[in-house]
Design brief:
rod-shaped; five-stranded mixed sheet; Heat Shock Protein 90; five-stranded antiparallel sheet; Beta-Lactamase; alpha+beta; single chain; 355 residues
Length: 355
């Protein structure tokens, strides 16, 4: 029979010299709340302490001389192979987790930490009950899976919403286009075109969101490039070529700022295309757009042209032009500020904090 004589403590500083060493070891072995065991070279239980009965329901006589594999879950059989290797090498500690069968047929997760007893062909193992921890981990994993599935469903729904909104805008613009085709008044036709472009500016936001991996934010630089191209084809003919200098840094905006920002871009560019370069304008026609990040979440969006400029006495917040009068209102909706410089052409500088 294996006794705790195999596990002699160092002779120095004994707690109670009157108690023999093996008695100290036996007392610890029998009273430990952890599952303790000694496994022989054939991976059979040589000794187990009473904790095995308290936690798994097995009395010592139920386990001693029986293979450890008898109570290990079949899916965890590789841990038996690890114990066999540990018995052969007899050099290092061995740690692993597995499921062991209780006497009532259920399984509990255990964490094993074992060391070889010299070259005697035995392993001494301290085994912790980790079943509660494993159940908690499983619940967390299941909750995480459920959350991911819920988020995926919401993403699909949100994607569908953006797609339908975009399609509805396209239907509206198509109806406006059909109606404007019957308009003989040139000024009324221009107003219909501007209205269609405003709707298209909002529709483009939802199109970008629909095609984005992040359904709640858009790349503002990409949006600027697209809307410039679309407005240019609407207003500028080949005889009035405009050069563009577009410099953008990565800026992503949520939908609550994207809509007013898109409309601001539409109105400023529309005004430049219509009025900055009248017939007979001499020299190159240049529109510059700069988007940059400032400190923190502050963003600066600047539009400038080298055209004839706005009248010196024009106050854009009180102008009869609907498009220009919308610019300060939409800028305020973004939580931003607007500066207007008329010294060389026209420059609009908008600064806002990204939300």
């Amino acid at each position: 029979m294996i006794t705790m004589n195999n596990l002699k403590a160092p002779p120095a500083r004994r707690v109670n010299r009157k108690i023999p060493e093996f008695q100290i070891g036996e007392t610890f072995f029998n009273l430990s709340s952890d599952l303790l065991c000694i496994v022989d070279r054939s991976v059979r239980f040589a000794r187990v302490n009473p904790a095995w009965m308290r936690i798994l329901g097995w009395a010592p006589e139920d386990l001693v001389s029986h293979p450890v594999a008898d109570i290990v879950h079949p899916e965890d059989s590789k841990t038996i192979n690890a114990m066999e290797a540990g018995l052969v090498e007899s050099t290092s500690a061995l740690s692993f987790e597995n499921r062991c069968r209780c006497k009532d047929g259920s399984y509990r997760w255990l964490s094993w930490n074992s060391i070889p007893l010299g070259n005697k062909g035995y392993l001494f193992a301290v085994v912790h009950d980790i079943n509660t921890r494993k159940k908690t981990e499983l619940k967390l994993r299941m909750s995480d899976v459920a959350l991911r599935e819920s988020l995926r469903d919401k993403d699909i729904l949100l994607k569908e919403v953006h797609h339908r909104v975009k399609n509805n805008f396209q239907i509206i613009t198509s109806l406006i286009s059909l109606q404007s085709g019957k308009i003989k008044n040139r000024e009324a036709f221009k107003q219909f075109t501007e209205l269609s472009n405003r709707i298209r500016a909002m529709s483009l936001i939802h199109e970008k969101l629909y095609r984005s991996n992040d359904l709640s934010r858009i790349d503002l630089g990409d949006y600027i490039s697209t809307i410039v191209s679309e407005l240019y084809s609407s207003y500028v003919n080949f005889e009035r070529t405009i050069q563009f200098d577009i410099r953008t840094e990565p800026v992503d905006l949520g939908i609550e700022q994207s809509i007013p920002c898109g409309l601001v871009i539409n109105e400023i560019l529309t005004n430049a295309f219509k009025y900055a370069f009248p017939d007979g304008f001499a020299g190159p026609r240049i529109v510059t757009i700069i988007l940059r990040n400032l400190k923190g979440k502050h963003v600066e969006l600047q539009f400038s042209d080298n055209g004839v400029g706005l009248p010196a006495d024009l106050v854009i917040s009180r102008t009869d032009s609907l498009g220009l009068s919308l610019v300060p209102l939409l800028t305020a909706q973004m939580g931003g500020t607007l500066e207007l410089d008329r010294t060389a052409g026209t420059t609009y500088t908008i600064r806002f904090v990204k939300k």
